[in-house]
Amino acid sequence: MPSAFKSVVRSVLRELDSGGQLTAVDSLHSSTSFRPYCLLGRKPSCSLFWKSRYLCIDLSIKDILEPEAPEPGAECSACFDFDDVVDAQVQGSVELAGPGQGRIAGEAAVSGSSSSSMKVCRLRVGTSTLEAMVRGRRLRQPEPKILQQLRRRGDNVYVVTEALQTQQEVQVTQARKQEGSGQFTLSGAVHLQGKGQGHLSRKKMVTIPAGSVLAFGVAQLVIGSDWDILLLPEKKWKTFQPLPPGDKPRSSSYSLVPHSGFEADAPAEWPVLTEDFQGLRAEVEAKLLELECWDRRLSRKLLGGLAPLLRDHQALGALESLLEQGLGREEPQPQDGPARAVFECLPRASGALVMEVANPIFYLVGALTVLSGTQQELLARALETGALVGQLELVGSFLEQSVPWEERSTVPLPPTLLGSSWGEDAAAWTLLEECGHEPQAGAPEVCWEPQAQGPTCALYASLALLARLSQ
């Protein structure tokens, strides 16, 4: 059964954010971490087709500015009432009989329902408020330690400027029921007959507290010898600008058009790729090509080290940081644990990581960290059962049929790739649902959601590289 919180968020965004300008909050646990003025970090993505997750850094913008002053209140620009009730049922029957041989018959039904009612407020920090903040305040000195760490890592920093927030406590109820029955009669020297039936019911109730954030929008900070807030989301700039020797951030200025530090969509050495499945496949195949020259023993050793990390989200993040430092020519200081075991498998030349080996692993780990914990667990099981190639072909077919990715569509899945497994308990169903799509009961098809493109592309890349390493 899907996350009740995620289902509510998708339903609200479908009505209020058809253009995909807001970012969905992915768990109830973190729904208070994205309120207006909260600061977020984000690593530069290793792909053209997905973005890294936002990282809550437990700071508000007032924590990095002086003179100290409370933040102005965010404006409630609009309020909305939502009543979402879904009631669905699918049933079917089959019968097989032959003259003098007997009869086999069966029936099955699947039903589901969900309901929620809520009031949502759209909170915004006005442009004039941001302008006044930038003109009248300066960066705190010395620079907070967390900003120093983000600067060293090359992460970007954002401030939450918009949020969809619940005004009242929300009760979400989900129910699912599966029923089946069958009977058979076999004629012959011995007459046999039998019948059976069964059902499985699930019910989930979740309470979303008042003041929970369902989705948010951000503006990027630019920090150099002064600081800016960028309000044009299509401009991709680096937060931390090079400082003149001995200089520190001190004065303030505001500009909608940044004066320096443009961050291109991709490194200069990347080939020009189209933003469709052909482009994604070309990007992934370039990484697979780098794996071709690997020694098989190295592949097995790395895969053996990566497998436990699929069930350890913190260790996976630690490995990503180690690889980032190593590829950046820093001297990593790995702590004991599964991440260190994988990192130390990688060959070195003159003490530095061999780029041709570390680069595809960094790409793989970056893709894996975009996925949810549930998806990482399912990939671990597929690795154990040898199901990676089948899942790769299914996700690839889904992505290829979904073009253009900017439009919602209903995509049929090839029965030859599904076998007899389709339903809420099927791995393919959960993998695509966790990306943000809507699998349909009955006929094997999935509703493509444009906002789910990034996680789906990351899932495809993860399956492709894991499958190649396991060969």
TrEMBL record:
Any GO CC annotation of this UniProt entry: NLRP3 inflammasome complex
Classification via InterPro entries: Gasdermin, Gasdermin_pore, Gasdermin_PUB
One GO-annotated biological process of the protein: positive regulation of inflammatory response
Chief subcellular location: membrane
Xref: Pfam families: Gasdermin (PF04598), Gasdermin_C (PF17708)
Molecular function as annotated in GO: phosphatidylinositol-4,5-bisphosphate binding; phosphatidylinositol-4-phosphate binding; phosphatidylserine binding; wide pore channel activity
Domain called Gasdermin PUB: residue spans: 276-437
Membrane topology summary: Multi-pass membrane protein
Protein name: Gasdermin D
Gene for this chain: GSDMD
